[in-house]
Design a protein that fits this description.
This protein has helices at residues 8-28, 31-50, 130-133; strands spanning 64-66, 71-81, 87-96, 103-105, 110-118, 136-143, 146-154, 161-163, 170-171, 176-180, 184-191, 195-196, 203-204, 210-213. Helix 1 runs antiparallel to helix 2. The longest helix is centred in the first third of the chain and has 21 residues, at 8-28. By secondary structure, it is α+β, with helices and mostly antiparallel strands. It is elongated, with a radius of gyration of 19 Å. A hairpin with a 5-residue loop joins strand 2 (71-81) and strand 3 (87-96). The strands form three sheets. The protein has an eight-stranded antiparallel beta sheet, with no helix packed on it. A three-stranded antiparallel beta sheet has the order 1-14-12, with no helix packed on it. It folds into two domains: 5-50; 64-213, Glucose Permease (Domain IIA). 20% of the residues lie in helices and 36% in strands.
Length: 220
Amino acid sequence: MRFAREGHPFIGAALLLACGGWVAVMRFGGWSVIVLAIVLSTLTLFVFWFFRDPPRNLPDDGTAVVAPGEGRVIDIREVEEPSFLQSTARRISIFLSVFDVHVQRSPVDGVVEHREYRAGTYQAAWLDKASEHNEQASLGISTPYGRILVRQIAGLIARRIVTDAFEGDKIERGERIGLIRFGSRVELFVPMHWEVTCAVGDRTRVGATILARLPVRLEP
C-alpha cells in the first residue's frame, strides 16, 4: 500500500505516540494507561488508512472520463461555469468522507490552462452552499474534445488543500493532481455535449470509476 507524501509527518507522529503509549504500559501498567495506548494505536491505524494512495487500473475504454475523487456522487446538475469553461456545464459533485481515499486524480489527458485558489469558509461539504462559500482550488484542463474543470473543496474539518498541477503542465488521465486533508468535496464540470454515465448515489473510486465519456473515441 502506498501513502500520500503529505501524510508522512502525520504517520510518523502517530507511530511515535502509539509506541510511547505501549512503552508506558510496560513501564507503569494500569488500565488507564492500557486504554490510552489502545486509543493511540487506533488513531495511528486511522492515520494510515486516511493517507493511503492505492494504485488504480484505468479503464481500457479511451473515451472514459474517470472520477477525480473517491466517495459518493451527491449531486448532478446543469450550472453556469464562468471561470474556465465560460458556458453551461454539467457539474458532478462527489462527497469524500474521512474514510475515503483523499488523493485526487486527473479525469482526462490534457493540458492545465487554469489554476485558481479561493479562500472561504469550512461548512459541511455535503451542503450545496459549500460549493460556493468553502475554501476551494480549481484546475482547468484543456482537451481536444473540450474543456473540463476539477474543483477541490474543503469541508467541515478540512484545513488543507494541496494542488500539484500548474498552468502549462501536461497531465495524463489517472495522474495525481492533489489531495484534501479530511472530509471534503470534489466537483467535476464537463461540457454539455459529453455523455454523463453516473447517477446520484453512485460510489466512485478515484481514477477508476467512469463518470462520463468523451464525445469522440480517442485514437490508439
